[in-house]
Amino acid sequence: MRFVYRPRSKQSSPMTTSPQTTPSVSDMYTEPGDSRETHDNPEGKVSVPDVLGPDIAYLIITMLARNDLLSFMRTCWEAYAECMKILLLSDIVLKDSALISGFCACVLKDASTRGPLLRSLSFPSALDKIPSENIRALCDVLSSARKLEKLFISNAHALRCMHFYSLSSVLTMFTELKVLEVRGAQVLGAELAQDIRIPLTHLSLDWEIQRPCTGVSMDTLEFLAPSLQVLKLTVIPPIPPSQLTFPSMHTLSFRIPAAAADIATFIRACPKLRSISCQTTSAPAPSVEALRQRHERKYAKLRWEHLDYVSADVPGLYQLALRQPTRSIDATMNDLSGHSIQWLTTVLTDMQPTHLQLHLDITADHEYTLLEDLLRGATRVTCLKLHFGYRSRISPEHVVSIVRSLSIKHLEIAGRAITQGPDSFVPSLTHAISSVDFVAVTRLDNDISIPSMIIPGEIVVSVWSRCPEVRWHDRYNVWLNP
Questions:
Q1: pLDDT, greater one: 320 or 475
Q2: d(Cα 187, Cα 322) in Å, to the nearest integer?
Q3: CA-angle at 349, arms to 348 and 352, nearest 5°
Q4: Nearest-angstrom CA–CA distance, 441 and 432
Q5: 115 occurs within a structural domain
Q6: Would you say residue 16 lies in a domain?
Q7: Over 80: is that where the pLDDT of 219 sits?
Q8: Is the pLDDT of residue 467 over 50?
Q9: Total domain count for the chain?
Q10: Is 71 inside any structural domain?
Q11: Do residues 279 and 257 make contact, with C-beta atoms less than 8 angstroms apart?
């Protein structure tokens, strides 16, 4: 490897007053020979490695920011080749459809060399409509990217077009692919089952619930079971009669509510689980109690050593019977009643979280009288976030009744119908809760957002509005016992 620096001509000398241009990402697709400068004459060239050494020179270019790298790669062919390798090995996100043509042309110009350098490609959902000729070129690029490790497709149009150009056949070529994320996976259909025969570690498939992804089944996942670490699906696949184990799975997520029994069966197949996000289908209280008792008997001694985060509805958490310490819980309570409070108390007692986020919707006046007993089991919680539904009219007294008996240090409240402004809301909380050292209050309104926080000895309240006809720029401080 040899890096050579050519002194600039007088027209482009740094001492002249001509404006400097900032390189764009499109410069990646412009080779040195395409610029006004030439590199034929070796006279006057100074070798950077002769001064710094090739190892140090390479270390420097690997640490350059993107714009600096794009500038440096235009200095000579040697720099261009090495910088091109670094760019192709990085995470490439095609945010602008105008870049696709140049990107594809750049890779396909030397597909046998540049294609295998690609490691990560992402097509965001905000990408503009892609011309069909560019879709064909993208598929050609993917066909040459034999060592691709990460593929993210969040653009439904791109996915439909790619499927037309046999994306399914391309998937079979990625022998080193580890991460696959697809939105609109229903386009792939039943072919997905036979196409994914590579040891993925991360699989995320999202599809329209009206058009189910028929290819996603436990048969699809059976091949991936030994290697899969992260699995995110729209719905949980049907559970097979025979038990399947995911020995490396640590993150699990299902977007659409599922039966608590199916979720319980699935997570019991993941001994190294660290994080789970799910929702359960509604069930009458007697059924909830019966399933809870069955799980307690069946899985009494089962534990997850690394379990750190659980997000679910309160009835679902109660039915899953995860009786072990868990650092963080994100719970949703859509029905505030004696049953749901008892279930939440049991969950908090069993799991002993220190961080709790609770989504609560109060729909009737009598439910406010139950708030005092809401968090009886939260004896270890020090960080609490309360998100109230749009029908919940919340005053400082309501929040105080919830947290008065707790040792909260970090408190956040958010809601659409907060009855008072933060300037009066926050002092009421800090006066009633002696342990708190941080409070944030946010009014979740379409027009106004009001956050508040405590910094040592002081409350800072910032107010602004998204409405063009209302412009607030007030910032004021309220001192507490200065």
A1: 320
A2: 36
A3: 65
A4: 16
A5: no
A6: yes
A7: no
A8: no
A9: 1
A10: yes
A11: yes
